[in-house]
Amino acid sequence: MVVSPQFLRDSTEMVRDQLSDVFDLIEVRGLVSGGFSVRGDWVCRFDLHDPLKMIAVVCGHLRLTTDGVAEPIHLAPGDVAILNQRTHMVLEGGRGDGPAAELPIGEADTFVRVDGADCSDADVIIGGHIDVNPIGRALLTAALPPVGHVRASAAEASNLHAILNRLLDEVTGSRVGAAFAIRQQGQLLLLEVLRAYIAQNDELPPGWLRLLTDERLRPAVQQMHDEPGKPWRLEELARAAAMSRTSFAERFRIVAGVPPLTYLNNWRMNLAQQALRDGDTRVGPLAFRLGYTSESAFSNAFKREVGMSPLRYRASVRDDLPVAAQSVPV
Q1: Using an 8 Å Cβ cutoff, are 194 and 233 in contact?
Q2: Burial class of residue 116 (count of CB atoms within 10 Å of its CB; 0-12, 13-18, 19+)
């Protein structure tokens, strides 16, 4: 069978979706930073410095306590928790019927077996964090609760166990290419966690995460993502969603938290920041590509939303200086 180049292009286009668009925009990565395996009653205390921390249970059970959450969260095998802008956490394992051994915090990028414990009779924990660019940090921290708990027992999380076992195998196996494999498995773990989190939450708060899961609005959102520079009218977007203008505008505002054209403008601003940060795109062509009639109109809109001119934003990011506003909510 001969496969034409056109078929390959069409097939690639078929797998595009809005969540992938956002992942590309915010340059999201799931990074594994270490872990441990331990028997008996134990406790480990951490100060958290990453805005988005991940804890995954490969085997056993643990109780997670963190600031801003009243009760301990119980994590079972295959469960993953994402801690959103928490300052500290306490992990506890075992039955709790004996004195708990205080575990020291290990070095980053290491996996520690306490007393030679393995998955057959121990609690096995892997930790990591979500690394995103400044745009993504604001978007994800706004979309997630203080602790997002994804249960592997749910049907939507059927792949979590397998990914965690492969990840543990790479972390502990010391095989050639392990660092690359760990990065790839970390990416897949994060994707499955976010997919399962979305599926397990029937009432996501208004925002981009809820919008990307709305089947009725998806065609209109896809058109805005495909052609952000087109001067979209509300009637056209409503037609794409097969809804009346009024129903579309009301549903979009309820789901996304903002009106459709505000979402479009915010998406354009985030694309503009990505282009200014990552390349040498000239402001004039960028303005026209994003649908602005002039460079000055774009610069004024950018300054109004981001807090500084496009050229100053580029200089600030490249010089690692503080940026007044690093993302626009979508």
Answers
A1: no
A2: exposed
Lowest mean pLDDT among 111-115, 188-192, 256-260, 314-318: 111-115
Instruction: Find residue 43's DSSP bridge partners.
Output: 92, 102
pTM: 0.73
H helices of the chain, in order, are 5-14, 18-26, 134-143, 160-173, 178-200, 208-211, 218-226, 234-240, 245-256, 260-278, 283-289, 295-306, 310-318
pLDDT of residue 138: 77
Looking at the domain that runs over 210-318, which CATH code has it been given?
A: 1.10.10.60
Backbone φ, ψ for residue 314 (5° rounding): -60, -45
Query: pLDDT value at position 328?
Result: 52
Q: What ranges do the domains of the chain cover?
A: 18-200, 210-318
- The alpha carbons of the chain give a radius of gyration, in whole angstroms, of 23
Q: Does the domain spanning 18-200 belong to CATH 1.20.1250.20?
A: no
pLDDT tens by residue, 79-104: 999 999 999 999 999 877 777 888 87
Band (pLDDT 50/70/90 cuts) for residue 105 is: low
Question: Would you say the C-alpha torsion 89, 95, 96, 99 has a positive or negative sign?
Answer: negative
